[in-house]
Amino acid sequence: MSKYTQREAVTISQILAAKQSGQKLSAVTCYDSAFARLIDHTSVDIVLVGDSLGNVMLGHDGTVAVTMNDMLHHTAAVARVLKRPFLCADMPFLSYQVSTEQALTNAARLIQDGGAQGVKVEGGHPICSQVKAIVQAGIPVMGHLGLTPQSVHAMGGYRVQGRGSDAAQQILDDAHALQDAGIFALVLEMVPERLAERITASLHVPTIGIGAGAKCDGQILVLHDILGFDSGFSPKFLKKYANLGDTVQQALDAYDRDVKDGVYPGPEHSFKE
Ligand code: KIV
User: Fold this and answer.
1) Can you give the pLDDT at residue 7?
2) 145 lines ligand 1 (CB under 6 A)
3) Which of 125, 138, 172, 212 shows the greatest Cβ crowding within 10 Å of its Cβ?
4) Looking at residues 90-115, what average pLDDT do you find?
């Protein structure tokens, strides 16, 4: 939505209007205030404090171990400086599945204590009563279908979902159930492009794809993947827009050399009496 001026805050109604006008939405993850400050000066529409912070920031091998305290800590860091994009935070594994009351309490914590403007949850029919309750409390909810990493053990790994007509129909039905429950947008992760296109055409809320092809209403990627922090991580759906991993290592090696060669600090970096 490049029509936005730099300082105009992105709202839910603008996100919904983007679908009607055919304007694509851009979204990225973010986990800290240093990157939030940079993203704030771009035209990116939506920032997600994803539970992918388990992998990216905390060194876990997935999102299952991420806790509410982890999410609150990182969401608050982003919220302190992010002013323009719409800020959504992931509800972590088992913070909303147990009961409607638990879901509402934890969603409220991410808004009140974390400073998020909306929350994202993974799953379809089984969590629709929780989604409805959170929405009715005035908290915007983003859905997430297809590959849902919190269910990695049930899915048997990180693989494309919705292949075959029954599996595709299930995702389509779940998408409609979530829309009826009141979501404002739906992430579709790792589903075939044709299925994402069908879902996108049949919903009035925008779809945000990751590994779901070009027909979604918007796209989301993990910030550190876009920036190329890990040169060994190159899934098919990813386009890297920088190679910051290499850049950072080269900079640190240059600093190390300068220190050891006595080149840094020079006179220009030292204080006079
Ligand atoms: O946790 C996350 O980063 C996500 C996005 C990849 C959609 O859920």
Assistant:
1) 53
2) no
3) 212
4) 98
Render pLDDT for 133-160 as a digit per residue (tens, 0 to 9).
999 999 999 999 999 999 999 999 999 9
Domains of the chain: 3-242 (3.20.20.60), 244-273 (no CATH)
Ligand 1 atom nearest to CA at 52: 1
| Atom 8 of ligand 1, nearest CA residue | 50
**122 CB within 6 A, ligand 1:** no
The pick from 120, 142, 227 for probing ligand 1's pocket by mutation, whose C-beta has the most ligand atoms within 8 angstroms, reads 120
Distance, in Å, from the CA atom of 124 to the CA atom of 144, rounded to the nearest integer, reads 8
> Is 189 part of the annotated catalytic residue set?
yes
Atom of ligand 1 nearest to the CA of 56: 3
- Which of 29, 20, 13 has the alpha carbon at shortest distance from 149? 29
Which uninterrupted H or E stretch holds 90? strand 86-90
Q: What would the two tokens of residue 20 be?
A: 């009607």
Dist CA 65 CA 207 (whole Å): 27
pTM above 0.90, yes or no: yes
190: left (phi over 0), alpha (psi -120 to 50) or beta: left
Do 63 and 51 contact (CB within 8 A), yes or no? Answer: yes
Catalytic residue among 189, 193, 268, 273: 189
By DSSP bridging, strand 118-120 and strand 218-221 are unpaired
Query: Any residues with CB less than 8 A from the CB of 14 and at least 6 apart, and which?
Result: 1, 4, 45
